[in-house]
Amino acid sequence: MAKADLHQTRNIGIMAHIDAGKTTTSERILFYTGLTHKIGETHDGSATMDWMEQEQERGITITSAATNT
């Protein structure tokens, strides 16, 4: 993997109340930055950030997650 240019690095955090769209926003960020090739949806269990089986079955986010692009 190529070494990242620190001038191009941005760290962000997404915090909001329940059902505000945090996972939806995260999924769009992953897609539009090219990390994923498909936009995952929480309600159908295809969200990249919802990796636990319980999260996928219930269509909710239970744990926090971190990723990089």
Tell me about the largest β-sheet. Answer: none
Going by helix content, strand content and strand pairing, the class is mainly alpha
Q: What is the global morphology? A: globular
For the secondary structure, the number of strands is 0
Write the layout of secondary structure elements.
Blueprint: H1 22-32, H2 53-58
Give an account of the 3D structure.
By secondary structure, this protein is an all-alpha fold. The chain has a domain at 21-63. The chain is built from 2 helices and no strands. The longest helix is centred in the middle third of the chain and has 11 residues, at 22-32. It is globular. The relative contact order is 0.16.
In short:
This protein is an all-alpha fold.
Keywords, separated by commas or semicolons:
69 residues, mainly alpha, globular
